[in-house]
Design goal:
Blueprint (H helix, E strand, L loop, with lengths): L11 E2 L2 H20 L9 H5 L11 H11 L6 H14 L2 H11 L9 H13 L15 H4 L4 H14 L2 H6 L4 H9 L6 H12 L16 H10 E3 L5 H10 L1 H7 L14 H18 L42
Antiparallel strand pairs: 1-2
């Protein structure tokens, strides 16, 4: 249910909030232009030059791989689904998953071996091959598990999650926040990652919670919120994400923007959280006079077009997959 916003001191927006909505609309236009194989994705010079995630988290390349190759491809018993999700998401790198598959065959909890997995990852690192994505930063885990190398500690983290029967506890959870709270009890999983992993698990059939139930802002989103609002009023950063999510239709209409939803699915809390992070990056170029919490001034990653089209697939429970080939 939408919050009632007129009972407290409302947040005060800056002009960057208009950029937030314009970015969302144009980034979604790029998504559909790519599907249509349009020769011109966008006229926005910042979006042409720099890499940004999609307006919808589930439409991103890594999330699509998670859905196609990790969650719905393989044994559907709870332990195996949780093992695959955590193994993939802790490294968050497609190439690392494919390396493990290539060297070890089918990746399963029942066939898991700490020594074998360590050996494959260690050999990759010795060859100068990165095994972690730069998207999320995780603590090394050394203080919790005692190993010298980060990947060793993270494998031990997965073992701990599995041996404490987290899959059964996740199935019994009453809310998305309960799943988040359970994940938060494990070493090296902080608040932002616990939320991200809860969303990933909720893509599966193990849980079926509404993505509008709970949100946890990450560091990048907090930066974006600071740029979009000069004052939060009487609200928290999580409230602000809900505030913009609740107002999305009015805001697009106010700015005269035609926002193409994800085949009828409006932006969810996780998407608007992510859009604050991306707006923070975009504003470094578009509004360099506005500073966030981190005071970063550059966008590290440049856009590089890939020649590998994605056959889009979303959690079947969303009811979108039959609509994907519809006209948009």
């Amino acid at each position: 249910m939408p919050m009632i916003w007129n009972t407290k001191r409302l947040p005060k927006a800056t002009y960057v909030l208009d950029t937030y909505w314009r970015f969302a609309a144009e980034r979604q236009n790029i998504f559909f232009n790519r599907i249509a194989e349009s020769p011109r994705l966008t006229c926005d010079p910042i979006l042409l030059k720099h890499k940004f995630t999609n307006a919808y988290r589930a439409a991103d390349r890594v999330s699509q791989y998670l859905l196609h190759e990790i969650i719905y491809n393989g044994d559907q018993t709870p332990n195996e689904i949780i093992f695959r999700i955590l193994l993939f998401k802790i490294f968050n790198k497609i190439e690392t998953w494919e390396l493990l598959q290539h060297e070890l065959g089918k990746v399963t909890w029942t066939g898991y071996s700490f020594d074998l997995y360590c050996k494959v990852l260690q050999q990759a690192l010795q060859a100068g091959v990165p095994v972690y994505s730069g998207a999320y930063m995780m603590a090394s885990g050394r203080s919790s598990f005692g190993y010298e190398r980060k990947h060793q500690n993270h494998l031990k983290l997965i073992e701990q999650v599995m041996r404490l029967q987290a899959a059964d506890r996740i199935i019994e959870a009453k809310s998305l926040e309960d799943v988040y709270g359970l994940l938060l009890t494990f070493p090296t999983i902080g608040r932002f990652l616990a939320y991200q992993y809860a969303i990933d698990i909720n893509y599966s059939d193990l849980t079926d919670f509404n993505e509008m139930d709970f949100v946890m802002p990450g560091p990048g989103a907090k930066d974006g919120i600071r740029k979009c609002f000069s004052s939060l009023g009487d609200y928290t950063e999580a409230d602000i994400i809900r505030y913009v999510t609740d107002r999305q239709e009015q805001e697009f209409e106010r700015l005269g923007l035609h926002f193409k939803t994800l085949w009828g699915r409006p932006l969810q809390l996780i998407d608007c959280q992510n859009l604050f992070c991306e707006t923070d990056k975009y504003a470094r170029m578009a509004h360099p006079e506005i500073s966030g919490i981190s005071s970063r001034t550059r966008i590290k990653q440049l856009y590089a077009q890939t020649d590998h089209p994605i056959a889009y697939f979303f959690p079947p429970k969303w009811g979108l997959n039959d609509r994907i080939n519809d006209k948009f």
